[in-house]
């Protein structure tokens, strides 16, 4: 039973980390887009 709990927690942590990476990537793309707009 404990093994299952740990496995679920590990999966949730991995999902959260993936989600954070996606958000950070979107922010970086957005910032680059803003810089391009400012140059114009």
List the helices and strands and how they pair.
Blueprint lengths: L1 H38 L1
Q: What's the quick description here?
A:
This protein is mainly alpha-helical and 40 residues long.
Q: Helical segment tally? A: 1
Biggest β-sheet description: none
**What is the ordering of alpha helices and beta strands?**
H
Report the principal-axis shape. Answer: rod-shaped
The low-confidence parts are none
Structural class: mainly alpha
Radius of gyration: 18 Å
Mean pLDDT over the full residue set:
93
Tell me roughly what share of residues is in helical segments: over 70%
Number of strands: 0
Query: How much strand?
Result: under 5%
Distance between the termini: 59 Å
Give an overview in words.
This protein has one helix and no strands. The protein has 40 residues and is mainly α. It starts with a helix and ends with a helix. The model has no long low-confidence stretch (mean pLDDT 93).
Structural descriptors:
40 residues; mainly alpha
